[in-house]
Design brief:
Number of strands: 13
Helix content: 40-55%
CATH architecture of the largest domain: 3-Layer(aba) Sandwich
Number of domains: 2
Strand content: 15-25%
Shape: globular
Distance between the termini: 51 Å
Order of helices and strands: EHHHEHEHEHEHEEEHHHEEHEEEH
CATH class of the largest domain: Alpha Beta
Low-confidence stretches: 377-384
Length: 384
């Protein structure tokens, strides 16, 4: 019997600590922020019937317009996670070859592993700024490759794959495995900082490219459970619709109606969030600089997340464990890199959920945590 692996990332949907720096999104929208009196009255008339398997036509058009594609290229899914699972299920069966990265959003890898795919891992390293190494990618690629699953920007690092490198990877796929699909998770693409412009979507490029995203991260609406897959391959799109129908049938019509309201107010919502993300990034950069004896980081390109590493010179393996325990005891949670297939001395730090004052307070606690965890180790060494 197939088993879903346990991953402690499930703790993120459990009890919330005083200061949650493990989350990967900005503040949640509320219904009051989203709906005025007229919109609320209209919503009350939404029938609690089955929605369509492909997704509400107006919602698909709104998604399509923002990606420069046709509504017929869009399938609305129950969060981005369902899109990732369905793509893996359809494109890569038991024993067939797929490539994905480590670190990676755990659901991406879990879908492939649980289905019995032969997964080849492209290791992204802190030292290389989490950019994929082309030589390593070529060593994994073969005529048997069915699916290459990437994210840009990545989770947990927030690093976007450099366009020239992605072009080289696509060219290699066209040469070695022309029938394979490239899936790119673009969930964090629009979560930019201040006046930074989002990277261009890959949705328009080729029929063998699938893009996935959702309203959970950039738009502060994870509770709606609305995501989407975009593909210009009509046969694959049909399979995605059938796969959705045979698993969840459809999305909630209430969720779809609210999602349309979110996208209709997209410019306002993103415009309000980007300065906040920029301030969170600034505070995080300052914190890393002040604590450079203990930590180093890779600056993200987008998203409310980054990867921070406890320096090996200051933290042995026992000190790394102490760091997490001391932080938790002080009411601060960060996301252990092991959740994503990285080393435990790397952690994902989320700087978008807390307001500026709470973020500053949480980072002060983390500074004390670094000192206590590392100093404890230094005292033990001195006394030995």
């Amino acid at each position: 019997m197939a088993r879903f692996p346990k991953n402690d990332i499930i703790s993120l949907v459990g009890a919330t600590p005083r200061y949650d720096l493990a989350e990967s999104f900005g503040p949640h929208l509320s219904l009051g922020e989203l709906l005025d009196a007229a919109a609320w009255e209209k919503l009350q008339n939404t029938p609690l019937a089955y929605a369509t398997a492909e997704g509400d036509a107006r919602l698909r058009r709104a998604i399509a317009d923002q990606h420069g594609v046709s509504p017929d290229d869009v399938v609305v899914t129950v969060g981005g996670a369902q899109a990732l699972f369905l793509a893996a299920f359809i494109l890569c069966g038991a024993g067939e070859e797929a490539i994905t990265t480590a670190p990676v959003f755990p659901h991406t890898r879990t879908a492939l592993d649980t289905l019995g795919a032969k997964v080849r891992t492209l290791h992204l390293t802190f030292e290389n700024g989490y950019q994929p190494d082309l030589t390593n990618f070529l060593a994994l690629l073969s005529p048997a490759t069915k699916l290459v699953s990437l994210a840009s920007p990545q989770n947990p690092s927030g690093v976007a794959i450099a366009p020239p490198r992605l072009a080289e990877m696509r060219a290699a796929m066209a040469d070695r495995c022309p029938d394979a699909y490239l899936l790119v998770d673009e969930t964090y693409r629009e979560a930019t900082y201040g006046t930074d412009r989002p990277a261009r979507t890959l949705a328009q490029l080729a029929p063998k490219i699938i893009t996935v995203a959702s309203l959970s991260k950039c738009h502060g609406s994870p509770g709606l459970r609305i995501g989407w897959a975009i593909t210009r391959d009509a046969g694959l799109r049909e399979q995605l619709v059938l796969g959705k129908f045979n698993t969840t049938i459809c999305c909630s019509p209430i969720d779809e109606a609210l999602a349309l309201h979110v996208l209709e107010q997209r410019d306002r919502i993103l415009g309000e969030r980007r300065p906040r993300l920029a301030e969170g990034l600034r505070q995080t950069a300052d914190w890393v600089s002040r604590n450079n004896r203990y930590v180093e980081w890779v600056r993200p390109d987008a998203g409310a997340i980054c990867c921070v590493r406890l320096k090996p010179a200051a933290f042995d393996d026992e000190a790394v464990v102490r760091f997490y325990q001391i932080a938790a005891d002080a009411g601060v949670r960060v996301a252990n890199g092991a959740w994503f297939g990285d080393e435990a001395r790397v952690f994902r730090l989320g700087f978008g959920l807390l307001d500026a004052a709470d973020l500053q307070a949480a980072l002060r606690i983390l500074s004390t945590t670094l000192h206590e965890a590392a100093a404890h180790d230094a005292k033990e060494v001195a006394g030995a």
